[in-house]
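[Automated response] Your request has been received and processed.

Submitted sequence:
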Amino acid sequence: MNAAAFRPGASSLPSSTVEISLRCENLRDTDILSKSDPFCAVFYKGSAGQSEFVEIGRTEHINDNLNPVWQKKITLDYNFEERQMLKFSVFDSDSSGSSLEDHDFLGYVQCSLGEIVSMQSKGFSKALNDGKGATI
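Generated structure:
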C-alpha cells in the first residue's frame, strides 16, 4: 500500500467531467447580403471568490446559418458541492479578429453548470437574453 496516496481526514471535492454540446435556433440575421455566421464564446465563474467571468472556450463559426449546431465541445469538471456559473455569448463573426468587440452580438444566456447537468437526458434549452426569440 502506498502511504502517500491515502491521508486520513483529507478528501477531495466530488467531481465529474462534463462535455457540453452547443446549438442555437432562430438567431437574428445581422448580415445584409447573407445570413449570420455565428459562433459561441463560453465564460466560467466559480464560487471560490471569483467575481468575474473568464472565457474558457469558443466554438467554430458556421457560415450563413441561423440554426447552428457546433461541433466543438466544451469540457468542464463539475464539482457537486460548488456553484459554477456559465455564460454563453453568441456572436455573428464579422472579421478574422479574435476580440469579441470585432463581431456583432446576438445574445447571451447565464446559468449554472448544475442546471445543465440536471437536464442531461432531456437537453438544456433557454432563450437568449437580447436574442429576439433565439434559443441556445
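Summary generated for your ticket: Residues 113-118 form the longest helix (6 residues). The CA atoms of residues 30 and 36 lie 6 Å apart.
If you did not submit this request, please reply to this message.
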